[in-house]
Amino acid sequence: MTAKNNPISGRCKIIGEKVALQSVKKCHVCGNKNNFRFVFTERNEATKPTYWRIPEDYYVQIRCNECGVLFVDSEIDDQYVRTNHREETRSNNMINDMLKGFEQARFPALQACAKSIVKFINSKKGCKVLDVGCSLGTFLDIIKAKGFHVFGIDIAPEFIEYVKNNVTRNAFSVTLEESHFRDDFFDVITCWETLEHVVNVKRFLVKAHSLLKEGGFIAISVPSSHYVLMKILLFGKFFERMRFVRNLSVRDKLLIHSHIYSFSPKTLRMLFESNGFKIIRVLPLGKPSVGGKGIIYNLGVATLNKIANSVFWITCGRVALSLSIFLVAQKSR
Questions:
Q1: What are the chain's domains?
Q2: Total-model pTM
């Protein structure tokens, strides 16, 4: 059933109204089958690139009342994700554009992640690291320079070809679930801004758990559902006349429609702990932002980082000034 004919799309006008799922059979985080509430719905615009959109005519976001995770009620599957991701990489200039834009923009955050991994994990040089959704290998390049033996996987063959030619020959165009690495092979698995695109996150973590050595680590980053701009976007229709909301960047406007899941620190902890991992650290990640370069930016990045970290800890992660969450967990069983 498509969301165009989905009663959720036309019926739900009240945030928090209890609903029944139409496309998804259960919550992939906790297994709940009948306790969900409506959060947000919006028509998919035909002008948006297909790789940013789900197949239905409407985007319907639901909250699981058992674990709190936000997810889209959609018939999206692994093949749809793979096919539409290919559209994103077909342009001849795509790789050059990414190197100048996206990869360059996230380089500082990936450097911070690599530094944190070395600090928290205290791994020896030569440890095997698998980066899931490795893109153009920016993180692999960073961690390789620190003495790690690197592997990368991505569903885009064009990205893998670039990684093989520029970073490591140990790169493969597969999903984690499709990969044929032997069990207990990796010391560390990383996954940067990818888990929110995975169709079945429980299946993903079961596979990651099997590939890690005893005591191995997994480190991930995901957009935070408690990011202040996420909250504004969810309730944007009530503030649509405000200049601040109208001037949000394209990147932030796409925040919701491009993701299957939206995680909070609480739901991430629950997801990993229920799949055999012990949480080591959960931190805010990325430059603090509230949507503009106003007077707050005069405080300086260092001060903003301190403020963002303080807000994160005081509110137990319920309010985030940074776009993403960084989590490190250890295989415990």
A1: 7-76 (no CATH), 110-331 (3.40.50.150)
A2: 0.80
